[in-house]
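Researcher: I'm preparing a figure for a lab meeting and need a structural model of a single chain. I don't have an experimental structure, so a prediction will have to do for now. The sequence is pasted below. Please return the structure as tokens so I can convert it later.
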Amino acid sequence: MSGKRVHLAAHFPGVNNTTVWTDPRSRSQIDFASFEHLARTAERGRFDFFFLAEGLRLREHKGRIHDLDVVGRPESLTVLSALAAVTDRLGLAGTVNATFNEPYELARRLSTLDHLSEGRAAWNVVTTSDAFTGENFRRGGYLDHADRYTRAAEFVGLARALWDSWAPGETPRRHAVRPGAIGTVRHSGRHFTVEGRFTLPRSPQGRPVIIQAGDSDSGREFAAETADVIFSRHGSLTDGKAFYTDVKRRLQRYGREPDELKIMPAATFALGDTDEEAAERAAEIRRQQVGPQTAIAFVEQVWGRDLSDHDPDGPLPDLEVGEGVTQGRVPIGDRAAVAAKWRALAEEKHLSIRELVIEVTGRQTFVGTPESVAGQIDQHVQQDAADGFVLVPHLTPGGLDEFVDRVVPLLQERGVFRTEYTGRTLRDHLGIGGPR
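Model: Understood. Here is the structure written out token by token.
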């Protein structure tokens, strides 16, 4: 390849307003056929992996199920195990919470996926201190916010100890293994006490790939110490460079090389035969993603009040911030400060509620002709703003097809993206080698 290799992954969205459900081309978010279509498209495009997000409780807004959630989404590792049977090389990544699971059981489930897929499994490690989500679990909201990453770090370390407890190359034959092939894991820490032997041998890639998405200082440090991939939100060239430099710099204190951690921001795209057509399409997608009801819901989350009597095409509410009407979402932080910032922006640009929400909730990362988008992606990677991108299409399940058909061949022509898989495991695709 002529430059740094571009890494690509495909995200199947669900708990946000990325997906345009009203488009006639949009299909089911829960039928297996939808997952299969998107995964097969990603594999046809020679992507590194297919990525599933997951929530542990349906969010609520004003006491009702939040309209931006998918109701009925199957459990991620079960879906990925089924996808292992209909794909051959594509990595399979699932989001699983380290706060409301136990290391031995989750390590076993992830190792099972890694074996079923012949070394293509990945775990996106997430945490939560949200008591609302915790009500679905025996311990409830017991975990303080400051303890999220201490538990997650101990969890990941223990899972790795279990995965590494079998001797390399050892597999059971006739229900027996040679003496000493399986080590006993003994661990007594702040959050977990475990003593026993793991039931599964090492997988073809040694152990599952670890993905992490935290952006706080502690989250970045956790990723630098433990992650193989960061699912970042820093998709612009300037922000991407700053994030890339910061996280790669942190690797040194853990004895790691820069190539051992891949930084892959989430990215959206809008294509057109001309740049003008692509811009028009991007604007229309944004208006579909932020309809009148969605616009009001976003402002209600910040203002903490029922604003259903307000016109989405009218001005922001002239009200103080209330106590809150949404449960289960990532906390906004200082809502009063956010409200003040939004109000100043709306006044400066003369924006209605809906126009403001479109302005502040993000835009398509890459907009233009296929040639332009391929060039933008290559630029980000060559200039160290990212190692690649996790693409989030706005249509399910066919939204990735156009990108694979029109942009991937151009990246291949540039010599920065594979034309065929050269390895079998996800670690092979990412170029990160086996675990230490």
